Amino acid sequence: MYPQAAHTFYRKLSQIALSAVTPIAAVSVALACGAVLLWLNGFNGLDAITVMVFGSFQDMRAVGEILLKATPLILIGAGLCVAFRCSIWNIGAEGQLYAGAIAATLVGTSLDGLSVWIHAPLVMLAGALAGAAWAGIAGYLKVRFRASEIVTTIMLNYIALILTSYLVTGPMKDASAAYPQSARLVREAWTPRIVSDMRLHIGILIAVVLAVALYIFLQRSSRGFALRVVGLNPHAARYAGMDVARNVMVAICISGAMAGLAGAFEVAGVTHRLYQNISPGYGFEGIAVALLANNNPLAAILSGGLFATLRSGSEVLQITSQVPQVLVLVIQGIVILSVVAFAKLRDILRIVA
Q: What are phi and psi of 106, to 5 degrees?
């Protein structure tokens, strides 16, 4: 028994080490490639990457901006962890974010006279429900017609973006504004800020709490266990009496609700209006957050913080080092590709081990 127990302990320790080392290696390799790319274009690669990683931590206000950017990434990444653990490849978080932003804007502009303790939560709830409903369309098409959720969620992204453009240039357009945008949300609908003279709001606290809750849900609840079993082997889950279709719907709707809540926070906590391009790509970046976290909602907190740091650092890099935006976007793309590649390598090494 002792050799078997030692082997089990060694195997478990190896898996933990592999899970910890892989994301660090992925980001390190990506940043090294970015440094080489910058050097080939006439910049000091090492200095530029140092600015990109550490340049955002100049003061508390800068840290607050990092946390502000981390909020939607943590929400979306943690939600996608649930979908991915159920083998539901939800690529539509961007569209679900926009659906949540639209619903939050409708609630935030159409109701008046409510207390902030009622109106602000209603805005969040509307965003989450809209995101879940938008994701539920793809879920229904999958369980009813076996349509690929990859295709349907991508198509729904385009529909959500086009719908947003139509609304802010038509029915929801602010008549007094020269640019496509909605009316401003009433003050009581705004997400409360943590510090009055900073843009950081309580959304970051809610994002962390929800990420922890989703981890507990996946690892400690019977429903979470069912989701993981369906993701590993839907045929075995069905044979064991689990409702595969229901679990698929639950998983994709949870991920959609988290993305919709991220959209609500962008409207109610940051812009206070709906714009055509309210998201800089948080929905797509959230996929990389989930992959870097190895589909662990708890790890998505750190992963989302890392990507937020790189996003803020890239803005500082453009200002201080005069690096063209195109190069910065290429470096961000290298990071995402490296994360995906190392995630696949981790799975291969885990099988071999």
A: -60, -45
